[in-house]
Write a structure and sequence with these properties.
The protein is of the alpha+beta class. It has a domain of 97 residues. Helix content is 49%, strand content 25%. The protein has six helices and ten strands, in the order ββαβααββααββββαβ. A hairpin with a 6-residue loop joins β8 and β9. α2 runs antiparallel to α3, α3 packs antiparallel against α4 and α4 runs antiparallel to α5. It starts with a strand and ends in a 12-residue tail after the last strand.
């Protein structure tokens, strides 16, 4: 194994990673303490195609259990199919593809933004209660039907357990400013892509803005960073910084 100054390459990389992590913590703290010069809130809806896909997949997966139950004249499999279909839809709709309530804060050092799933508090209560009920029903079906039902009902019980502690979660993201920037704008979707030049993933991000507030947002950005180029795109996929 090659060594440099008595240290292996693995040890050198580990040391560099630790130093970068310490620097990241310092930069994050400074960003949180920086004065806010502009802020905005936007409700970001999930794409309609994802919502339709959630319904179709839930019906298909739940329907398979129901169909199997009808063929075998098994009430256990039918109930399992209904529970599975409902649980999968709720999981997909509220866990994998919910609408996002976003709050952006622009500072001289970067942008901080939070994301919260737009789910009413009562929905969490109902879902936790339904999950506990589903656990009991699924386990009861295993006892009633026998070991053959464990593959379906037992699996659904484990899935339901994960939702017994389901609650709201706020995620915080940051983008630090460094160097010159290029901006891509997708007006139809009210999306702005901001990335440094040369491109660095730590200084890159997508932002949704309020309708008709594009000019106001760009004016606020110009005061904080050096924008060398602005490009308007007609497809969301062209927001990718690596795509011309």
């Amino acid at each position: 194994m090659n060594k440099e100054n008595g240290m292996t390459k693995l040890e050198i990389n580990e040391l560099r990673w630790q130093e970068e992590r310490k620097l990241r913590v310092i930069l994050d703290e400074k960003l949180f303490q920086a004065p806010v010069s502009y802020e905005w809130k936007v409700l970001v809806p999930e794409e309609i195609i994802m919502k339709i896909a959630n319904v179709i997949i839930s019906l298909v997966l739940g329907g398979l259990f129901v169909y199997a139950g009808l063929l075998r004249d098994s009430i256990g499999l039918i109930i399992t199919g209904v529970i599975f279909g409902v649980l999968f839809f709720l999981m997909a709709r509220y866990l994998f593809s919910p609408d996002k309530d976003t709050h952006y804060k622009l500072t001289p050092l970067g942008i901080i933004y939070t994301e919260k799933d737009t789910i009413p508090d009562v929905a969490y209560i109902i879902m936790r209660g339904f999950s506990w009920f589903s656990v009991i029903v699924c386990l009861a079906m295993v006892v009633y039907v026998g070991p053959l039902a464990f593959v379906g009902a037992g699996g659904m019980a484990l899935l339901a357990v994960k939702f017994t502690s389901f609650q709201a979660e706020i995620k915080t993201h940051m983008i630090h400013f460094s160097g010159d920037y290029i901006i891509k704008i997708y007006k139809k979707g009210n999306i702005l892509c901001l990335f440094s030049k040369p491109i660095d993933i730590d200084y890159y991000g997508h932002f949704h803005y309020e309708q008709n507030k594009e000019k106001e947002l760009i004016e606020a950005l110009v005061k904080q960073i050096n924008i060398i180029k602005m490009v308007e795109v007609n497809r969301a996929r062209y927001l990718n910084p690596y795509r011309v």
